[in-house]
Structures are given as C-alpha cells and as structure tokens.
C-alpha cells in the first residue's frame, strides 16, 4: 500500500472523486444520491442522529484530522517548525495567506454570506503537495518545506476556526468528560511506549478514542476536533505506528469519499452572472487572496527577520508556493458546509466556488511551477533517494 502514500496519487484520487461526485449529481442519478446523503439510520447511535453525509464529515473525516494532528506534532517538535527561527517565516506567510483571502471574501460576499469568511483561508495539504511533487521535482527542498509548513499552520488555524466560530451551543459536561478522555488517551500512549505490539493496549486506545469522539460530538463542538486533540497528545511511538496504518485508509478512502460527498451538488441552471456573491467571493479569494497574502507576507517576513540570502525562498519560488496555497479543497469544503448549514443554496454555490477557486489555483500553480522547474538542473535520483531515506530515519529516531 506504499503507492497510496504518494502525494501525487493522493491528489489524483481527491480530484477524481470530486469530479465523479459533481458528474453524478448532475445526471439522472443526482436525486437518488442526494436522498442517500440525507438519509438517517432508523435508530440513533448512543443519542447521535446523523445523516449519511454527516457520518462522513463528522465521523470518517476524524481519521484525516487525527493523521494531520500527528503530522502537526512532528513538525512542531522535530520538523520544519521545531524552533522559533524555523517557524517564524512560514507563520508570517501563513497569517498573510489567511488574512487577505478573508478580507477579500468579506468585502465581496455580501451580508448574506458574510459568515463564510473562513472558507478561503484554508490550504489543502494533500492536494498542494501532490501538485508540487508532480511538477516541481527540481525545485530546492526549502520550497517544499515552506509549502508544507504553510499548509500545516494553515490547517491549525482552520481547526481553531472550526472550534471557535462554528460551534453554536456547548455541553460543558460532555466537553469536560471528553477532556478526561484525551488525558486517558495520553496516559495510555505513554504506557504503549514501553509495550510495543500490545494488542490489548491498542484495543483500549481505540475504545478511548471512540468514546472521546462521541463525547465531543455530543458536546456541540464539531467532532473532527476530537481527532485533532487525540493526535496531538499521542506519544511518538504509537503516533507513528497509527500514522503508518491509517494514512493509506485516510488517503485512499476517507478523503476521496469526503470529496465525492461534498462535491456532489447540482449545478444551478442559471447564467454565471446570476450566481450569488458567495460563489464569486470564494473563486476570487482563494487564488488571488492567497497569492497576494502569502507572497507579500513571505517577503516581509524574510526581510524583517533578516534571513540569509542563501537560505531565502526566492520571489519566483514564493509566487509558486502562494499559487498552490490557493488550493483550499478539503478544509474549505468542510468550513463551507458548517458556515452555510442553514441555507442549502449557499452550500451549493459555496461548494462550486471552492471547487472552481481550487482548480484555478491548481492549474495556475502547476503551469507556473512546471515552467519554473525547467530552469533548475535535474536532481540526481540517488541524491533524492538518500534525502528521502535520511528524512525517514530522522522521523524514526524521533519515535
């Protein structure tokens, strides 16, 4: 299953699933698919009554956020964000890439869609890195490192947005018990470090994780936050083991299924000029906002922090990273559903806006970086393999 860990494969699966969902939704099968998405089980699951679509967004997507949180912890402890000096420039660039799209959206969306301002602030890690891996093989390693760091910080900000702005009511009791579940998960993870391969302990970790997820879902906070909390507190050894096992499932099933479900909307039979301001705000804010925000903030950050010239990401490279930063996709689709959950029409137009804006950013970024890539000498395959092996050994040593 190593092939499915390839960022190019992951990106293609995401794109293919989204296209398939959009296609099916606009055929004769569309009404049946829509009914299936909104169907509920004939019984509740310990008090949870979710539609099929919400079992994907509130249930399966937790696996993706759990894996992302493990990656977050690694980057902040041992990776590209493990020190203030390493994290400073990506953080400044990421903040610019959040602020400018949000401001653009807020000024374009109008009063009815104003609550969706966080939608264009996200960057899809899997998709962006997949495009870079496809067209930027010769680019310096610090370009990929910057894009990864940007996306990681971006996801962290997106998680905070989901927790703070898309929570209506909170059950303090359920949330407090969920916090105890996170603590129990952390303690079990520390015990696991000295007992690798203990199946009873693995099963207990799984049970505690499921109970914690249920408590978070019942608390009123979006259930994906449970995956984030659990991934951040899990000790390195079990975390790496879990990532190895769950990453193929996340890349091959969870994300494509989420992309298919979220993208399966009927395209409104109206001229482009009659689409709501929400659609146009996202289409513009994702590629343009990210390009202006990340490029400007990145240049300011490198200059203000006096990064040595040999270590800087050049302006031409920063533009390429900024274009790929406009691929919102996964987290943007999720925030669109949360922001417009009370208005089906805005969910549809917001989804189309995310798909169109992300596609524009992906195409522009791919073409631009493919041209830029040709200006660099070929990377020796042996050197690339050695670099990849060294990175893997570094990750293992951290476990």
Overview of the structural elements:
- The chain contains 15 helices and no strands.
- By secondary structure, it is mainly α.
- It has a domain at 7-39 and 82-166 and 261-389: Na+/H+ antiporter like fold, CATH 1.20.1530.10.
- The two termini are 22 Å apart.
- The chain crosses the membrane at residues 52-72, 84-105, 117-135, 147-166, 172-192, 199-215, 279-301, 313-335, 347-371.
- It catalyses: Na(+)(in) + 2 H(+)(out) = Na(+)(out) + 2 H(+)(in).
- Na(+)/H(+) antiporter that extrudes sodium in exchange for external protons.
- Keywords: Antiport, Cell membrane, Ion transport, Membrane, Sodium, Sodium transport, Transmembrane, Transmembrane helix, Transport.
Features:
NhaA, Na(+)/H(+) antiporter NhaA, 399 residues, mainly alpha, ion transport, Na+/H+ antiporter like fold, sodium transport
């Amino acid at each position: 299953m190593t092939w499915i860990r390839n960022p190019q494969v992951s990106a293609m699966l995401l794109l293919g699933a989204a296209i398939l969902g959009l296609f099916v939704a606009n055929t004769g099968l569309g009404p049946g698919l829509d009914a299936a998405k909104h169907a509920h089980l004939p019984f509740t699951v310990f008090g949870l009554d979710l539609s099929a679509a919400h079992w994907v967004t509130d249930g399966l997507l937790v696996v993706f956020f759990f894996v992302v949180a493990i990656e977050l912890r690694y980057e902040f402890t041992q990776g590209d964000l493990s020190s203030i000096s390493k994290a400073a420039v990506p953080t400044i660039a990421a903040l610019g890439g959040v602020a400018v799209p949000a401001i653009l959206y807020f000024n374009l969306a109008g009063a009815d869609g104003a609550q969706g301002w966080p939608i264009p602030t996200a960057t899809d890690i899997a998709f962006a890195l997949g495009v870079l891996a496809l067209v930027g093989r010769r680019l310096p390693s610090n370009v990929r490192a910057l894009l990864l760091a940007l996306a990681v910080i971006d996801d962290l900000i997106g998680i905070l947005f989901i927790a703070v702005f898309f929570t209506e009511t909170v059950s303090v009791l359920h949330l407090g018990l969920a916090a105890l579940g996170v603590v129990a998960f952390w303690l079990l993870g520390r015990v696991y470090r000295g007992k690798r391969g203990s199946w009873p302990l693995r099963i207990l970790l799984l049970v505690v994780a499921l109970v914690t997820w249920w408590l978070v879902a019942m608390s009123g906070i979006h259930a994906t936050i449970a995956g984030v909390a659990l991934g951040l507190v899990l000790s390195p050894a079990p975390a790496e083991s879990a990532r190895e096992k769950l990453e193929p499932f996340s890349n091959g099933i969870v994300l494509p299924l989420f992309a298919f479900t979220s993208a399966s909307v009927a395209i409104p039979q109206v001229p482009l000029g009659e689409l709501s301001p929400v659609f146009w705000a996202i289409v513009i804010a994702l590629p343009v906002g990210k390009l202006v925000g990340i490029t400007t903030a990145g240049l300011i950050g490198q200059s203000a922090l006096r990064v040595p010239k040999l270590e800087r990401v050049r302006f031409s490279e920063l533009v390429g990273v900024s274009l790929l930063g406009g691929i919102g996709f996964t987290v943007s689709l999720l925030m669109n559903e949360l922001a417009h959950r009370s208005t089906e029409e805005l969910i549809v137009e917001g989804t189309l806006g995310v798909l169109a804006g992300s596609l524009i950013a992906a195409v522009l970024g791919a073409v631009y970086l493919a041209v830029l890539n040709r200006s660099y000498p070929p990377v020796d395959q042996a050197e690339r393999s050695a670099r990849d092996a060294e990175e893997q050994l570094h990750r293992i040593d951290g476990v």
